[in-house]
């Protein structure tokens, strides 16, 4: 490594591009890096301490809440609620908007996050991650934030990213000027720039989908998958969106989670628009890729609910567009 660049320095350099910046966005990104280190510390100790397993509760999605999920959610809320930078937060784990308590000042941004994506993998020591996006509030400053502050299309995201807890801990983010990846050096406790200006490779290597559900897919998705197999792509599916996305971001490929007929209560697939699909779509586009729900760019979707689901096709642009073509019935 020629030059050692910490995430703090990198974020600060990015801020200098905007002479009018107040430093609030920079502060939020710092805090996410910090909370990422705290969560990484807990994931490393999982198994040694009583932190594996389920809490016995179910979240808004009806999914079982793992203890680490609960820890990660509480850590993010606690660290961000008193800084005066945020007007509100929204989390996968919490049914409604998370207001900033009256005793603390409020700011110009909202933070939307999935504290621990892929959490059904925790007990098996498989990579998991925290996904986030930061938006400018729409409601007037000084008044309580509203749900509409969070219900903004991905095009309005100011910054987004994730922290991946894998063999190494990485933070990948974009504030609209490329995608940059940092690896946590545990010996000094710093995220160091290891992957500047990430671009999805032109030649894709992987396709990633839960092929166990193939029989529940519409015919065009089955045909699309058969087509990808004939392109000599390797199948890689971790079952942790953030880890699957990260691999394909660096290696090239597509991840998709289409709508299927397994569960009639989930006609739009499983993944959540606001804190899974939209932030990753923002990164994919910044890295020269694309993200679609099969008919339109993810970034164009106007959310109507906090926990709304969407089909997702994300990664290499050509493969995303090919998926859309199959869905329109235009097979090559
Ligand atoms: P998980 O249920 O473990 O939290 O969004 C949830 C998610 O994981 C994604 O991270 C992952 O890509 C997907 O669900 C896996 O779902 P399947 O088990 O249905 O493949």
Give a summary of the structure in a few sentences.
By secondary structure, this protein is of the alpha+beta class. The chain has seven helices and 15 strands. Helix 1 (7-15) runs antiparallel to helix 2 (24-45), helix 2 runs antiparallel to helix 3 and helix 4 (219-230) packs antiparallel against helix 7 (317-327).
Helix and strand topology:
Layout: H1 7-15, H2 24-45, E1 54-58, E2 64-66, H3 67-80, E3 86-91, E4 98-99, E5 109-117, E6 128-136, E7 157-165, E8 169-174, E9 180-185, E10 190-195, E11 206-208, H4 219-230, E12 234-235, H5 241-251, E13 253-257, H6 273-286, E14 290-292, E15 312-315, H7 317-327
Parallel strand pairs: 3-5, 11-12, 11-13
Antiparallel strand pairs: 1-2, 3-4, 5-6, 6-7, 7-8, 8-9, 9-10, 13-15, 14-15
Helix pairs in contact: 1-2, 2-3, 4-7
- Hetero groups bound? 2,6-di-O-phosphono-beta-D-fructofuranose
Mean pLDDT over all positions? 92
Q: Roughly how much helix do the residues carry, as a percent range?
A: 25-40%
Distance between the termini: 44 Å
Structure in words:
The chain is an alpha+beta fold and 332 residues long. 28% of the residues lie in helices and 23% in strands. The protein is built from seven helices and 15 strands. An eight-stranded mixed beta sheet has the order 4-3-5-6-7-8-9-10, sandwiched between helices. A five-stranded mixed beta sheet has the order 12-11-13-15-14, sandwiched between helices. It has a two-stranded antiparallel sheet with strand order 1-2. The radius of gyration is 19 Å and the shape is globular. Bound molecules: 2,6-di-O-phosphono-beta-D-fructofuranose. The site of 2,6-di-O-phosphono-beta-D-fructofuranose (FDP) has 12 residues, from loops. The site of 2,6-di-O-phosphono-beta-D-fructofuranose has 12 residues, from loops.
């Amino acid at each position: 490594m020629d030059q050692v660049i910490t995430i703090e320095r990198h974020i600060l350099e990015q801020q200098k591009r905007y002479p009018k910046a107040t430093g609030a966005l920079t502060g939020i990104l710092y805090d996410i890096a910090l909370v990422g280190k705290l969560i990484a510390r807990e994931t490393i100790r999982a198994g040694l301490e009583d932190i594996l397993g389920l809490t016995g509760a179910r979240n808004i999605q009806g999914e079982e809440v793992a203890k680490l999920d609960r820890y990660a959610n509480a850590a993010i809320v606690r660290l961000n609620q008193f800084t005066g930078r945020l007007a509100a937060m929204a989390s996968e784990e919490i049914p409604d908007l998370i207001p900033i308590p009256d005793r603390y000042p409020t700011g110009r941004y909202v933070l939307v996050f999935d504290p621990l994506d892929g959490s059904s993998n925790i007990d098996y020591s498989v990579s998991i991650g925290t996904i986030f996006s930061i938006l400018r509030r729409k409601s007037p400053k000084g008044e309580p934030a509203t749900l509409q502050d969070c219900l903004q299309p991905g095009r309005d995201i100011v910054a987004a990213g994730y922290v991946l807890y894998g063999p190494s801990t990485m933070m990948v983010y974009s504030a609209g000027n490329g995608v940059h990846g940092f690896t946590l050096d545990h010996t000094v406790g710093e995220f160091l720039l290891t992957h500047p200006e990430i671009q999805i490779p032109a030649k894709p290597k992987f396709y990633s989908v839960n092929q166990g559900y193939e029989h529940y897919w519409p015919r065009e998705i089955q045909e699309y998958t058969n087509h990808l197999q004939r392109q000599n792509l390797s199948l890689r599916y971790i079952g942790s969106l953030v880890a699957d996305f990260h691999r394909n971001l660096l290696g090239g490929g597509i991840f998709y989670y289409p709508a299927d007929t397994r569960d009639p209560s989930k006609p739009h697939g499983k993944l959540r628009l606001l804190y899974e699909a939209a932030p990753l779509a923002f990164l994919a586009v910044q890295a020269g890729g694309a993200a679609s729900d099969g008919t339109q760019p993810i970034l164009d979707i106007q959310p109507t609910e906090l926990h709304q689901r969407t089909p997702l096709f994300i990664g290499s642009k050509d493969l995303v567009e090919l998926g859309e073509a199959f869905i329109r019935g235009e097979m090559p």
